[in-house]
UniProtKB/TrEMBL annotation:
One Pfam family, short name: MarR_2
Annotated HTH marR-type domain residues: 10-59
CDD domains reported in the protein's UniProt record: HTH_ARSR
The name this protein goes by in its record: MarR family transcriptional regulator
Length: 92
């Protein structure tokens, strides 16, 4: 039986960044259960899509999530990232 989850890796990364905006890529990857290479790609996707911003602070990154952005899938587009984060935990 194959393992599957209800949330995508993109959602897991977004949740981790929201919970800890100063987390390293390694910390984000470990918490999301993915490789660091996947985390880097997903963070790039989220940044390119306008869902987060990355700011350098010394040798680390600081991430800012944009909770006002609408979800991408047409069936969920009426909802925002902030609603998703609020629904899935005390992360906002």
């Amino acid at each position: 039986m194959s393992a599957w989850t209800f949330l995508t890796h993109h959602a897991h990364v977004l949740l981790q960044v929201s919970a800890n905006p100063d987390a390293s890529v390694l910390e984000i990857a470990e918490a999301a259960g993915i490789s660091t290479r996947s985390a880097v790609k997903i963070l790039g996707d989220l940044e390119a899509g306008g869902y987060l911003e990355r700011h350098r602070r010394g040798r680390r990154n600081h991430y800012v999530v944009h909770p006002e952005r609408h979800l991408r899938h047409p069936s969920n587009a009426a909802h925002t990232v902030g609603e998703l984060l609020e629904a899935l935990g005390d992360l906002t």
